[in-house]
Structures are given as C-alpha cells and as structure tokens.
Amino acid sequence: MEGWVGSLVTLFCILLSGMSGWAQDVPPFTEDCRSEMYPPTGPTFRGNVSWYTVNLDQAPQDRWQKLITEKKTELTDLIQAIKGLATAIFPSGKIVDLVDRKLPLLIGTLPSPFGEEIEGIADASGLPLGEVMLFNIFYEVFTVCTSVVAEDKSGKLFHARNLDFGLFLGWDVKNNSWMVTELLRPLVINVDFQKNGKTVFMSTSFTGYVGMLTGMKPGILTLTMNERFSLDGGYIGVLEWILGKHDGSWMSFLTRSVLENATSYDEAKTLLSKTKLLAPAYFILGGNKSEEACVITRSRSSCLDIWELDLKQGTWYVLETNYDRWKAPLPIDNRRGPAMKCMDRTTQQNISTATIYDMLSTKPVLNKLTAYTTLMSISDNKLEAYLRICPDPCMPW
C-alpha cells in the first residue's frame, strides 16, 4: 500500500496551487468594529441558507438521496474544480486515477454510518466514490475559522461562528477570491436531523459532507470545531489511517456523534476532551446553563487545555480562531485580536445575536475564505446561517 500512499500524499500539494500571481505584500485590511449589520443585508451578505431534513430512521445509503439529487450540479462543479487543481500540478492524471481506484478500497474502514452515507452520496451524484471520500477528507486539514460563545447579563448563551474554508485552494487573481470557497457557498445547507419525526440535532454543513463542523442539539448543547495547526497534524493522521492505523477518530465524525448522542454538556465535554483524534482541533462547546461554555484544545492524543467561562473572573466569553490561547497568532493572520477587541467594546451588557454578527462581519474576522456565518441560541432553540462575502479590500484569510 505504501507505494500509492506516497503518490496520494502529493495530492495535498494542490494547496499550493493558484498562489502564483498572488501579491505577497498584502495590507492587513483591518477595520473598526462594524455595527448595525444585523439583520444581514448589504455587500457582505450573499444570501440565506436553505433548510433540509435528513431522516436518521432511513438506511444510511438513502438519507442524502433527495438532497444530493437537487445539488448534484453544484457538487459536481466543486469536485471537478478540485480535480482540475490536481491535474494542473500533475498533468499525467495519475493522482486523480489513484483517488478513483484506491480510496474506495478504504471505505469499509470508516465507522458506521459514515462510510455507508458516503457510498449513498456517490451513488446519487454519479461521482466516483474516491472523489466523494476525498471531499470529506479535505475538511480535516483546510479550515480556518472563528468561533465564540458568550453569556449576557441574564445568563443567556450565544454561540456563533464564521466558517472559513479553501485556504490555498486555487486563488483567482482576476476576481480576488478563492475558487474552492466560491464553489462551496452554493453547497452550504442547514440540516434538521430527525428520528421518529422529531429533531435530534441541527447543523450548518456542506452538501456531500457527512461530518459536522457546526451544530446544535436543542435544549442541550451547541458545538463548533476549528482546525488546530500542528506539526503532528491532520495530514499525518489521515496518512496513518490510509496505512491501516484506525484507532483515532475523524474530528468531524466525532462532533456529529456528540451532537447526535450526547445527553448533556458534561458528557459532550468528556467525549471531546478524551477521544483520540486523527487531527488536532479546537472544540468550542456551549451548554444550556450559565457558565456552561468552553474551548477544548486538543492534540491528536490528549487534551491540552480547557478554557471555560468564569463570570467571577470576568470571563464572559470564550473566543477561538486557530491558535492556542496562550500563544500569539501569526501577524499575517491575527483575527483573534480584532474579534476580541469588538467583543470587549460591545460589553456583556450589550451582547446579543446582532452584536456578535457585527463582530463576525468585521475584517479580517470576515475575509475572503468566509463561506458562512452561523448564529445559535440554545435558550431560543434557534440556529440561523447566512452566506457571506468579503468585498475588496479584504484579507485573503
């Protein structure tokens, strides 16, 4: 197996494509904290996110059939673009051939029901199984995001996030945008996962992607996941899985399992902090009571830190981008500083869905990679999501 694995590794080099021609000296397009951006309108608002229902009582292969049939063209366009990036670097076509021939051999190694759902998506879309698998793998290694949980003076919790995806995946010099990010926006969906006709959990996700990055279990918890950059990162975990080491959990499979099965905030926190992972991560978790919120910083094998709300110590919000809270972010990617500045300026007295949306609309928290913004309120049993766009001038990430 090692021979084709070495070739598959090179596929990830597509993250370097599209960057030629991109100006290296990019101004830090940072602006003052935005206000009165909610309800969403104007040039940063691309549209509402549509709702779909997935019936968990159906066989896994059948759950996504209707949705995939409706979004088949958009999903095909994205997969073709990813293949185009790979072919531009490896004109022989061997990399795409490896994905089509070899990855499907590993579908049985995925935990149930994820492998079966991916097979159903491939059947419904007519796309090669290996390419649908690759689409799901990408999210383990290419997300850069901002997540926050805040508590207002009445004890109400707000959980929100910007999902930024597509870093280094095809920079379009003409339109100043990431090609993959642009193709992802039409695939953004809100999903109501139901059993026996009742909601089990809700999520903002991408059509064709079976893991979860953003979600809410009504009355119990809210959850988002951000990528954590590390030398012992997602690439290594994915390659270990390809080579036959399957003792780690896919991050997005774990978050979906927690959303579906956890019965309390404490149970979710235990699962997210102790389960062995394929990739390091930040799990941003909210509960249904005062001070039930935390950022769990994970390596692949252990929990490094749990940062919790502590009103007595003045910690009324926790906010995570893609850097350990005890380390400074990269100067060219400091979304944390502007985000926290806006939160502090807002104050706990004035925090709300609207003011958090304002913060998430402030450059560079909003950037060229931002595909969507999701706002969740456990007390209001509400999840709402919006497609986003960052007009020029705007940071690439």
From TrEMBL:
Residue numbers annotated as active site: C145
GO biological process, one term: fatty acid metabolic process
Keyword Oxidoreductase: no
Key words, A-Z: Disulfide bond, Glycoprotein, Hydrolase, Lipid metabolism, Lysosome, Secreted, Signal, Sphingolipid metabolism
Signal peptide boundaries: 1-23
Molecular function GO terms recorded: fatty acid amide hydrolase activity; N-acylsphingosine amidohydrolase activity
Record field: catalytic activity: an N-acylsphing-4-enine + H2O = sphing-4-enine + a fatty acid
Residue span, Choloylglycine hydrolase/NAAA C-terminal domain: 145-328
EC number: 3.5.1.23
Protein name as annotated: Acid ceramidase
Source organism: Hymenochirus boettgeri (Congo dwarf clawed frog)
